[in-house]
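Take a sample.
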Amino acid sequence: MEKIFIDGAPAAIGPYCHAVKTGNLVFCSGQTPLDPDTMKIVGPTIEEQTRRVLENITTVLNGIGLELKDIVKTTVFLKSMDDFKGMNGVYAEMFDGHTPARSAIAVKQNPLDAMVEIAKSCGILSVLFTLKQTWPILHCSFFSFLVS
């Protein structure tokens, strides 16, 4: 297991790293709408905050040679489901046609009281396609367990 810390991404606000690589999978910590220079939440709207979250995610992914299109699963934590439409619009724009599996849930509060936080998992697709072709049913169950 390799712990990953990325220059240019917001510093962790607790005892965790930006990502962990194990085998052919990368599990990334959730990102909030922090400006990496000031460590302050950016923007008063869900659209601004979602954009910053996805920019922070992109910084982490680029730091390990990946892109948004390499994400296989995201979990979106919203302060209010009333913000779903605004988050979804920016999310769709920035993912540019890529549609990873996703869960979106409302939470009472996160540590920084942000309107949105997104966690994600990535995989090396050639390995995943090999597993899928070899064990199609096992692949679905096994992979869902690993990335959830």
